């Protein structure tokens, strides 16, 4: 990864605190907030570094944001930083989800509770769309990138092809096309 925007690397506690706040505020859609915190607010990475790291994390098993927190923590403070970032990210949401599970288990017949959970799902979907738009903006002047992204979207969302095999084929093909056609 290239040099970062900040002159001073975050401390282990700073990583924990940043990802704890992220976990507390980003229920159901942390990725857009992660980009804002890491790139715009704390300037730990540049926008390009964030997208590069996120792209790598999407190919790793597990959740993208979990992988991203570990990668950022590891980059700045090694294994203690990775552990701090990961624990900070998952501590509050785990507690909240367990609490919501208890509430839903006890009051799932109540229409107010059902509507509350439907509202949470809608908010998460909106955050996901917002993040997709932010990540797609750098592609607006790259027709080949747009075509590749559209083809993968059609394959997975339209044709219902399995994600992992589609990505295993699409990744090397798209890299080859970008390298070949770029010159």
What does this structure look like?
By secondary structure, this protein is an all-alpha fold. The chain has two domains: 129 residues, no CATH class; 42 residues. Helix 1 packs across helix 2, helix 1 packs across helix 4 and helix 3 packs across helix 4. The two termini are 23 Å apart. 20% of the residues are buried. The model has no long low-confidence stretch (mean pLDDT 86).
Task: Please tag this protein with its features.
183 residues; single chain; globular; 79% helix; mainly alpha
Can you lay out the helices and strands and say which pair or pack?
Layout (H helix, E strand, L loop, with lengths): L11 H14 L4 H12 L5 H13 L4 H44 L3 H26 L6 H16 L4 H20 L1
Helix pairs in contact: 1-2, 1-4, 3-4, 6-7
SS-based structural class? mainly alpha
What composes the largest sheet?
A: none
Work out the radius of gyration: 19 Å
How many domain modules? 2
The tally of helices reads: 7
String of helices and strands: HHHHHHH
In short:
By secondary structure, the protein is mainly alpha-helical. The protein is built from 7 helices and no strands. The longest helix is centred in the middle third of the chain and has 44 residues.
């Amino acid at each position: 990864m290239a040099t970062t925007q900040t002159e001073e690397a975050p401390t282990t506690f700073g990583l924990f605190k940043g990802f704890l706040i992220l976990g507390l505020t980003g229920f159901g859609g942390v990725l857009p907030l992660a980009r804002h915190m890491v790139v715009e607010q704390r300037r730990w990475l540049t926008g390009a570094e964030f997208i590069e790291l996120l792209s790598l994390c999407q190919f790793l098993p597990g959740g993208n944001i979990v992988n991203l927190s570990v990668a950022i923590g590891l980059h700045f403070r090694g294994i203690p930083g990775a552990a701090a970032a990961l624990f900070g990210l998952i501590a509050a949401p785990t507690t909240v989800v367990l609490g919501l599970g208890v509430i839903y288990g006890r009051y799932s017949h109540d229409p107010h509770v059902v509507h509350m959970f439907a509202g949470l799902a809608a908010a998460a979907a909106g955050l996901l769309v917002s993040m997709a738009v932010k990540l797609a903006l750098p592609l607006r002047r790259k027709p080949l990138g747009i075509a590749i992204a559209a083809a993968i979207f059609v394959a997975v969302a339209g044709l219902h092809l399995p994600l992992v095999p589609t990505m295993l084929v699409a990744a090397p093909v798209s890299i080859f096309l970008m390298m070949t056609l770029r010159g």
